[in-house]
Design brief:
2 strands; single chain; two-stranded antiparallel sheet; Rna Polymerase Sigma Factor, Chain: A; Arc Repressor Mutant, subunit A; elongated; mainly alpha
């Protein structure tokens, strides 16, 4: 029987590569402190240190799966590199703020149908919430800064028409309708 706590990294890696989950777990335990140290030296915009620790832990798994003893680096050097790369990639991605517009937008559909999101992205539709949501949209849009075109798009959208159908009805392109919906979401988000 193998004593995982005293086995060296190369032995643990060999066992993990063969599917030994105990060896993989031991490697993760051995390098968790390194992950924590690296995670504390970086700042993740819109995130927490725990998010960086998760990324670093995934770096350990990347190292276990991607390491090749035929290379010039030891497993320790390789796992160190994988942890740093994973954490730095997360920091860079957060800094780009690529998905900010998506994360800050609101769903007109959820307002329209009174949907309550649950853990597995299933929606529960409550008739009372649907009615309240519809009234709230009418209240918000009444007298607000929606253009005549945007108000028309919103009305047709809430009636269930697709972008193509709205475009045909209003004599506009699908792209114009999509742009109007994006502007509407942005304007409505100020009041919600």
């Amino acid at each position: 029987m193998i004593d995982y706590s005293t086995a060296n990294d190369d032995t643990l890696w060999e066992l993990a590569k063969q599917g030994d989950s105990n060896a993989e777990e031991r490697l993760i335990i051995n390098y968790k402190k390194l992950v924590i140290v690296y995670s504390r030296t970086y700042y993740l915009i819109g995130g927490e240190t725990e998010d960086l620790i998760q990324e670093g832990m995934l770096g350990i798994l990347d190292a276990i799966r991607g390491y090749s003893p035929s290379g010039d680096a030891s497993f320790k050097t390789y796992v160190d590199h994988c942890i740093k790369n994973r954490i730095l990639s997360a920091v860079r991605a957060a800094g780009r703020q690529k998905h900010t517009p998506l994360n800050e937008s609101i769903s007109i559909e959820s307002l329209q149908f009174g949907e309550i999101q649950t853990g597995l992205n299933r929606c529960i539709r409550d008739p009372e919430d649907m009615l309240i949501s519809r009234e709230r949209i009418e209240e918000i849009t009444a007298g607000r800064d929606l253009s005549r075109f945007e108000a028309g798009v919103l009305k047709l959208f809430l009636e269930g028409l697709s972008y193509i159908e709205i475009g045909e009805y209003l004599g506009k392109s699908v792209k114009s309708v999509d742009n109007a919906v994006q502007r509407i979401r942005k304007k409505l988000s100020r009041y919600l």
